[in-house]
Amino acid sequence: MTAPASQPQGAASPSTPEQYVQQKAAQSGSSFYYAFLFLPTPRREAITAFYAFCREVDDVVDEVSDPGVAATKLAWWRKEVMGAFNGQPQHPAMKALMPHVQAYDIRAEHLLAVIDGCQMDLDQTRYLDFAGLQRYCHLVAGVVGEVASGIFGRQDPATIAYAHKLGLAMQLTNIIRDVGDDARRGRIYLPVSELQQFDVKAHEILKRESPWGYSDRFTALMTFQAERAHRLYDEAFALLPEVDRKAQKPGIMMANIYRTLLREIEAERFQVLQQRISLTPLRKLWIAMKTNWRGR
């Protein structure tokens, strides 16, 4: 089986692995991309390659409609990770990443954990409680935060705990933003126990229909989710050691972009079932620049 790489129609084919991952990051429109711009070249190359890897495996789940095909592709990625760490990378994302793994302590177990998180998307579409959801978030966001914090530069091991908590806050923001998009795929990440707590039915979310859709029950449920995310952002920043604050500025940029998005969603009264609320690229860049100047 060939590697599950994607190449948009009409896009120029990148000639090197480094160009490939740069193109992958730029095309994504992700908030992460704007934080990368402020990094020194070696760190920027490392985080761009790591992000491209994460994007590749995430795209397998989001873009492949047949679960069996998606599972096969994730299995290919597991073999690719092990092969790359044995000196034989095949995919351009892995070829771009491997020169950086020793310098930034990126291990095969980190990449395999991200794949395991994507596998969970194939294996289950509901989470009974927040503890179960946290396990998923640990794999797809906490581990990513840990690797990113190592690339940004850390001296204090306590920074790892900050990175994991920040990853959780940002993933919960994603979940809030994407309720409607996920429902189209038959997925609901909001814990079943919390749906029951606020008397919101799963079939109501899956239908994404008015007038029930933006009822007081749904608004109360989403307000609960947003308040928890805000609390986790605050807890994460409280964990960041002062010695690593400057180096971790790119992560703070991403957090500020995500938290601004969360506040936009709140201001729109959680109108997330039939639209995807987002920030413009210019606004993301402005938030990143402002964070760079202020340092927080």
Helix-strand blueprint:
Blueprint: H1 17-28, H2 31-36, H3 41-63, H4 67-85, H5 92-97, H6 108-123, H7 130-152, H8 159-177, H9 179-184, H10 192-197, H11 202-207, H12 216-239, H13 249-267, H14 281-294
Walk me through this protein's architecture.
- There is one protein chain.
- The longest helix has 24 residues.
- By secondary structure, the protein is mainly alpha-helical.
- The chain has two domains: 92 residues, no CATH class; 173 residues, Farnesyl Diphosphate Synthase, CATH 1.10.600.10.
- It has 14 helices and no strands.
- Helix 3 packs parallel to helix 6.
- 67% of the residues lie in helices and 0% in strands.
Structural class by SSE content:
mainly alpha
CATH architecture descriptor name of the largest domain: Orthogonal Bundle
Q: Secondary-structure element sequence?
A: HHHHHHHHHHHHHH
Low-confidence stretches: 1-11
What is the total tally of β strands? Answer: 0
CATH topology description of the largest domain: Farnesyl Diphosphate Synthase
The main sheet comes to:
none
Mean pLDDT: 91
Tell me the strand percentage band: under 5%
Which percent range fits the helix content?
A: 55-70%
Cα-to-Cα separation, first versus last residue: 46 Å
Radius of gyration: 19 Å
Total helical segments: 14
Anisotropy-based shape: globular
Domain count: 2
Please summarize what this structure is:
By secondary structure, the chain is mostly helical.
